[in-house]
């Protein structure tokens, strides 16, 4: 009997404790921390105004990157068509050169031989021309056979072809045949710059033999540099020729350059990327070929759901908006935002139900909500 009474007492004690614990849990269950209730006076003092989502045309910004390039017509490879030894040059990589400036002096015995052949052919052609004319007169008077006349004509015309070919070789080597004489034969030729720009590469040195297929120097005219942008396939149709873009370098993101799209690639790489060529509106010497650049392209959306900028608040790295739940109750909900233009911010994947948002006073609500949660 005594044991029975003790067991009943323990059961009653545990039951009482369990009821008390359940009651405490029910009493202390936390409320929704993102909901705040205000009085009419508090709403008025905070200047809270509500409104609904709006649909507006808003620009989005496409961010791409690329590299400054020089079109092929602005890159010149300097070589020696007939080869020779590099006798003299003062060039350094990065040095500016002007059109017509002396770049190098090449020497070789073949230039002496070429000039000799030309002058010899030139002196001989006068004799052959006179002989041809003499045989022509004799043939007309039947004092000379047709064979002798035709032979003299062939020799004269062949010598004229030879002289013309040697003259073109001299021009190719940089020697003016009109100014060439027996007293000014030279073993060297001069190489002049065909463009104004700067030296980008030097592949030879003094005393080295340069073959006709070898590039000695590379010159670049940077005044017509282009920006080659890499654009993914899904974004290519958003661009058009003549579209203005803003570009900037990684080192100077604050300095913007206005560019214009001049060509959109018609094929895609293995990474599904197309190349878009852009031209700078104003040339800047600070823009060096090979420099990587970023670009921002404004693209018009058909329509976007937006809220005023004041309706969006930022807290702990996230963006929120307040929704009106009742006449004096507001709930803070996280939102994903897009671009902002003319005081309105785009909402990505918004809830399109007929909800009322706080468009003014959202920051005051955030302060009140967070101060309350800290109490």
UniProtKB/TrEMBL annotation:
- Pfam families per record: BSH_RND (PF25917)
Task: Kindly indicate whether the keyword Aminoacyl-tRNA synthetase belongs to this entry.
Answer: no
**Matching InterPro entries:** MdtA-like_BSH (IPR058625), MFP_Cation_Efflux (IPR051909), RND_pump_MFP (IPR006143)
Q: Name one GO biological process term.
A: plasma membrane copper ion transport
Question: Which SUPFAM superfamilies does this UniProt record tie to the protein?
Answer: HlyD-like secretion proteins
Q: Which GO terms describe its cellular component?
A: cell envelope; membrane
Where would I find the Multidrug resistance protein MdtA-like barrel-sandwich hybrid domain in this sequence?
75-212
Q: Name one GO molecular function term.
A: transmembrane transporter activity
* Gene3D superfamilies the record matches: 2.40.30.170, 2.40.420.20, 2.40.50.100, Helix hairpin bin
What keywords tag this UniProt record? Answer: Transport
Q: Which family does it belong to?
A: Belongs to the membrane fusion protein (MFP) (TC 8.A.1) family.
| Protein name per its UniProtKB record | Efflux transporter periplasmic adaptor subunit
The root-end lineage is: Bacteria, Pseudomonadati, Bacteroidota, Cytophagia, Cytophagales
